[in-house]
Amino acid sequence: MTAAAPSVPSTRLAFIGGGNMASALIGGLLARGLEPASIQVVEPFEGARDRLRQQFGIAAALAPEAALADAGLVVWAVKPQTFAEAAAQARPFVDPGALHLSVAAGIRSNSIGTWLGTTRVVRAMPNTPALVGQGMTGLFARDAVTAADRAQVEQVIAPSGEWIWVDAEEQLDAVTALSGSGPAYVFLFLEAMIQAGAEMGLAREQAARLAVGTFAGATELARRSQEPPTVLRERVTSKGGTTYAAITSMQQDQVPAHFVKALHAARTRARELGDEFGSA
Ligand SMILES: NC(=O)C1=CN([C@@H]2O[C@H](COP(=O)(O)OP(=O)(O)OC[C@H]3O[C@@H](n4cnc5c(N)ncnc54)[C@H](O)[C@@H]3O)[C@@H](O)[C@H]2O)C=CC1
Ligand SMILES: O=C(O)[C@@H]1CCC=N1
Questions:
Q1: Do 65 and 41 touch, CB atoms closer than 8 A?
Q2: Which pathway does the UniProt entry assign to this protein (predicted)?
Q3: Which residue is closest in CA terms to ligand 1's atom 28?
Q4: pTM assigned to the model
Q5: CA of 84 to the centre of ligand 1 (A)
């Protein structure tokens, strides 16, 4: 479970890939007081390098270079499809004793370990609310990872929100389907609620404010309540009332079952990514 928020990492950090997820983690670390100079980033695309310079004052390298050897913790924030190639490019420069933290969906720790010649690998599955310090992250560590290594990883993740450790690596695929992809499901529901509000005569801005506020309020209520979501739902649902009409319509259309099915599809895709783009 999530512990008290630890301080920023004392070791030097390198990020391989400086896109959305890397930026979310870096932004949190800098907000906690980490010096931009203690973070290296390897990022081949000029647009992304420009953003890192403007947002964070970090001069990212175009390609791996000798300075990578200074990093005690290397964070892999590249797409699953490019991980193997990025690992092959960076490996000659990385300290063989470094700890590695991957946020890539699906790519298994034994693939990463094989590509990098190490067993000191932790996998993380964060999500984009990390951008506002409210992320949820699942973490998995290989056996060779020590308690001190885990603490370092927690220092990287803590500024972006909460985290849990899972015991079995395949559980990370479930985390990916649930909370990794989860913000997109919430946004899809928001889109539908806003559309419905607009169709029923509300201004889109009003509908958006009502929808977003409802998600924020309902999730905060669920977070603080001792009751499970089912009980909270039943309290909104007066017999023969409006919510009953909506929930009955959704159940007749099997919306909950289809939604569960969709998460299984996401989990299946996470496994496929590991099979397609992993080597071991
Ligand atoms: N976006 C999301 O909601 C989440 C993404 N992830 C994972 O995070 C990883 C990164 O995703 P995003 O940040 O969204 O993608 P992104 O496309 O924003 O960032 C990836 C970056 O890697 C760079 N890159 C490409 N080849 C490279 C190489 N050889 N060496 C170094 N950098 C290279 C790209 O230029 C790009 O800026 C993915 O593996 C994804 O599965 C995990 C959780 C949530
Ligand atoms: O869609 C994806 O593959 C990534 C992983 C979780 C969120 N985005």
A1: no
A2: Amino-acid biosynthesis; L-proline biosynthesis; L-proline from L-glutamate 5-semialdehyde: step 1/1
A3: 86
A4: 0.95
A5: 13
